[in-house]
Amino acid sequence: MNKEEIEKVISEYRRKNLGNSEVYELVRSDLAYGISKEEVDGYVKDYSLSTSQKEIYSKCLRQRYPINFIQFLMKKVEEQRCPMIIEYFEKGMTVEQLEEVLEQKPKTLAALRSMLQNIYSELSRFTDDSVQNPELLQQFQKQINTIVKKFENQEEKISQMFQAIKEHENNSYNEEKEKLLKQLEDVEQDLVNEKTISSDRNVTIINLRNENNELRSKMQSLNEEIQKKDTELQKERKKVKRLSGQVEEAKSTTTDNTVGANQGKSVLHQEKVQGVADAYTVTGIGTEPYVVVRNTVPDEKKSPAVALIKKLFLSKRSNRYLMKKVIQTDLNEGQIRQVASGMEKGLTYEQLDILIESKAAPERMAGIIELAVLENSLKEG
User: Fold this and answer.
1) Where is the composition biased (Polar residues) (predicted)?
2) Among 128, 134, 259, 295, which one has the highest count of C-beta atoms within 10 angstroms of its own C-beta?
3) 251 in Cβ contact with 324 (< 8 Å)
4) Are 17 and 32 in contact (CB under 8 A)?
5) Alpha carbon distance 288, 286 (integer Å)
6) Angle formed by the axes of helices 134-252 and 317-329, to 10°?
7) In this predicted model, what pLDDT tens digit does every residue of 244-301 receive, in sequence order?
8) Helix axes 95-103, 67-76, angle to 10 degrees
9) Over 324-363, what HEC string results?
């Protein structure tokens, strides 16, 4: 087969995807050597063969071994035993003899060689003439059977030895396995215990974090409340400062139940104020108007608010000014009681004046009083 024909065959194999580059190179070499395509098909189209087995197949074709031996070699002989079987086939052993040896199932290459060598040695003792003698042939067959029997016994002993070793290994393995399983159980239990401890710690940490967050929230609320009260206090202080000038000016125009004779002729306008006291607006000549409060009150029945005002505001000159503020701002009884509470708790004149000016509801006045008391205690501290 020429080169062009060889490449055509390889192209056909490639198109059918029947091999790899090593197989195609082997085919090219065999076809060039003179092996026919039909013979090459024997290993190319056999998908059960490995690349190394196909190489052995190729060598057998080149040695012109019979096809039955090649098939025996590929189907019944392990790859690593092929060179030894080929060796004794070339020495003259038949396929049947080789197959009989393999049926004894030697476990190692050494055992296989020993069996093959013993049988081959017995075969070598007979010439072609002696082999034609039936008695010698029968004797030879008995010797072969004896050799095979010996190997069978040896194989059985070897099998028993391997079985004993395997059982010993299994027992040792089982003992070691039990130890390892026990250690594994201990480790797993330790992990469970550690997870439990870790879980408890996590719960404690979460609780502490929650408590910390609550405390922070409370602190933030307190800080906001303090800032709010501080802002209100600053506003009240500014208001006190603003009104302090007005208070001093009012003090300079207030007298103690009298009107100076040097003020000239005046016109008195009597007015009834809140049913509490007789208040007079005195208009002086060349002066600003001012108020004089008469201590006498009508004999008519007075309300609790009237009695409270009289008790609190008529004892001192400054208190009388506060009474004027109360009357002018038209406070109700609840507000008046809060002003009285502020006086009892020691609020300053300016703080009381701011409280009256605020006209706040009694509840809010109570809060302002507490704030003022706190401010006074801080100043004293």
Assistant:
1) 252-261
2) 259
3) no
4) no
5) 7
6) 110
7) 666 565 555 444 444 443 444 333 333 333 434 444 344 343 444 444 444 444 444 4
8) 10
9) HHHHHHCCCHHHHHHHHHHHHCCCCHHHHHHHHHHCCCHH
- Tell me the pTM: 0.36
List b or e across 226-253, with b for residues whose CB sees 16 or more CB atoms inside 10 angstroms.
eeeeeeebeebeeebeeeeeebeebeee
The C-alpha atoms of residue 255 and residue 244 are separated, in whole angstroms, by 19
Report percent pLDDT > 70 for the chain: 71
- CA 261 to chain CA centroid, Å, is 94
Q: Where are the beta strands (DSSP E) in 153-266?
A: none
- The more confidently predicted of residues 18 and 148 is 18
Tens digit of each residue's pLDDT (9 = 90 or more) over 307-317: 555 555 555 55
Q: Which amino acid is at 93?
A: M
Q: Which amino acid is at 233?
A: L
**Rounded to whole angstroms, how far apart are CA atoms 51 and 43?**
9
Whole-number Å distance between alpha carbons of 85 and 112: 9
DSSP state of 261: G
CA pair distance 94, 71, nearest whole angstrom: 14
Task: Return the domain boundaries, the chain.
Answer: 3-164, 261-380
The answer to whether the beta carbons of residues 86 and 74 sit under 8 Å apart is no
At 330, give phi and psi (nearest 5°): 55, 50
- Distance (Å, rounded) from C-alpha 321 to C-alpha 254? 8
Residue 346: C-alpha distances to residues 352, 376, 377 (Å): 10, 9, 10
Return the pLDDT at 215. Answer: 79
